[in-house]
Amino acid sequence: MEIWINPACSKCRSALSILDEAGAEYTVRRYLDDPPTEAELVAVLDRLGLEPWDIARTGEKVAAELALKTWERTEATRARWIKALAEHPILIQRPIITADDGPAVVARTEDAVRSVLTN
After folding, report:
1. How far, rounded to the nearest angstrom, does the alpha carbon of residue 101 sit from its chain's CA centroid?
2. 12 is catalytic
3. What's the half-sphere exposure (Cβ side, CA atoms, 13 Å) at 45?
4. Is the pLDDT of residue 46 over 70?
5. CA–CA distance, 106 with 104 (Å, rounded to integer)
6. I want to staple 104 with a disulfide (CB 3.0 to 4.6 A). Which of 15, 18, 52, 98 is the partner?
7. Helix or strand or coil: residue 104?
8. How confident is the model at residue 103 (pLDDT cuts 50, 70, 90)?
């Protein structure tokens, strides 16, 4: 599995600890240093069953600069959201875990992290 993290994020560090305690094999992607492409975001969103606005961190400074909170959340604006997340990866909610066998989760809680381990 792969986990997208920001090392400065306590939820990311917590998720890594849970994975380590479980003996899980994973790769770390520091998504701020290695941002996902628009195609990767589309694929992850499909696996998550979420829309780009569902994983957007609207409290970030760049979100305010873009006036992200005012953007429409529709199929017609989906590509705009994805482009913004790809161009400004700080806007992506974290951590995100994608397992090789298909499951993916925004792993902000211990239960969410463990849900990937049980699959």
Report:
1. 18
2. no
3. 22
4. yes
5. 7
6. 98
7. strand
8. confident
